[in-house]
Write a structure and sequence with these properties.
By secondary structure, the chain is of the alpha/beta class. It folds into two domains: about 200 residues, no CATH class; about 130 residues, no CATH class. Helix content is about 35%, strand content about 20%. The chain has a seven-stranded mixed beta sheet with strand order 1-9-8-7-6-2-3, sandwiched between helices. The longest helix has 20 residues. The radius of gyration is 22 Å and the shape is globular. It starts with a strand and ends with a helix.
């Protein structure tokens, strides 16, 4: 990895240059909110955004995607559909960069998911620094910064960006499209001051140091029943979560009944039918059990396998949940025995 300073006023030149080879996806305004969407005009790119409604995962693991077409008569695969569009995801916050690394553990493990992998292999990541909002708690999980998982990372130091360039391709693109300069001691000082201000800006003080032990101790706590009474079972938390990866697969027959399409769609462990099986059995037939196992999976099950918690503290679920159930409140409830 090496470092450069990129002036802010040349970022549009970088975006225009990237657009010659890649589809550029970045944060753009939609009313009062922000979304990751194709950047048609560099002026639309908003690197000052707070967070996006939906996470970056949808560009690797879409809400709905056609996996293949098949022939009904012999169940033969006629066509597999892989998205190999060259893309750049421009402007991901550290939490979203870290979320993709957590998703990689699932989809790029011993048996890589070919559809996810095709998109991941053809996408470059440009990260950008941020300042926490009152919903952020990424510092609780150590996802408030990232040192890998990107090609270029831009840290705001005033008139320019302190650019950390990690990949050969990232270096080639910077050299090709923008005029940058070497780092000075003053730049490093500005970077350190900005990093200190970022760390000091968090307002969600939540202690997660002993969370696995706490979860073991509170497995049968009535806290889960109280949370279940509040939960609406709508699945909004799963939809906006950058690390939820549950999905369903179903086949759709074409009108001629000779061919069909296999489709994968997002699913949620908060839906009542999620754990339903044959003969009317449902292993998680109460909202309390579904809330409970969602948190045990994210904060304990995934941790036991990958040594990381399946949460990056982005705050999207806090914003989306009408019942005001979120990781900060759940952890505090387990610690105090009181549901706020």
């Amino acid at each position: 990895m090496f470092f450069r300073v990129i002036p802010k006023d040349v970022i549009p030149d970088l975006v225009r240059g990237l657009s010659e080879q890649y589809e550029v996806i970045g944060p753009v305004a939609r009313g009062d909110a922000f979304v990751y969407a194709p950047v048609e005009d560099p002026a639309d790119l908003r690197l000052d955004y707070d967070t996006t409604v939906l996470p970056a995962k949808r560009w690797f693991f879409p809400e709905s995607e056609e996996l293949m077409r098949f022939r009904v008569s012999d169940n033969a695969v006629v066509e597999e559909k892989f998205d190999t569009t060259p893309r750049v995801l421009f402007g991901l916050h550290p939490c979203d960069v870290n979320s993709l690394l957590l998703m990689d553990n699932v989809f790029l493990g011993d048996r890589p998911d070919p559809y996810y992998k095709a998109r991941r292999d053809n996408t470059l990541i440009v990260g950008v620094s941020c300042m926490p909002t009152d919903l952020c708690f990424c510092d609780a999980w150590g996802t408030d910064e990232t040192h890998w998982g990107f090609d270029i990372f831009l840290s705001d130091i005033g008139d320019g960006y302190y650019a950390s360039i990690r990949s050969v391709m990232g270096a080639e693109l910077v050299d090709r499209y923008v005029a940058c300069r070497a780092i000075t001691d003053a730049d490093t000082q500005a970077f350190q001051e900005r990093s200190a201000a970022f760390k000091a800006a968090f307002t969600n003080d939540v202690d997660t140091s002993q969370l696995p032990v706490l979860l073991d101790a509170k497995f049968d706590s009535d806290i889960w029943d109280k949370l279940g009474e509040k939960c609406l079972g709508c699945g909004a938390c799963s939809v906006v979560c950058p690390t939820c990866y549950c999905f369903d697969v179903h086949d759709e027959l074409e009108a001629d009944q000779l061919h069909g399409t296999r489709v994968r769609t997002w699913d949620s462990c908060q839906f009542k039918q999620f754990a339903a099986v044959a003969h009317g059995q449902n292993f998680r037939d109460t909202r309390a059990s579904r809330v409970k196992y969602r948190y045990y999976h994210k904060q304990w099950g995934y941790l036991s396998k990958f040594e990381r918690v399946l949460c990056v503290g982005c705050g999207r679920c806090t914003r989306a949940c009408k019942a005001q159930i979120n990781p900060v409140r759940v952890v505090r409830a387990l610690q105090t025995g009181v549901v706020e």
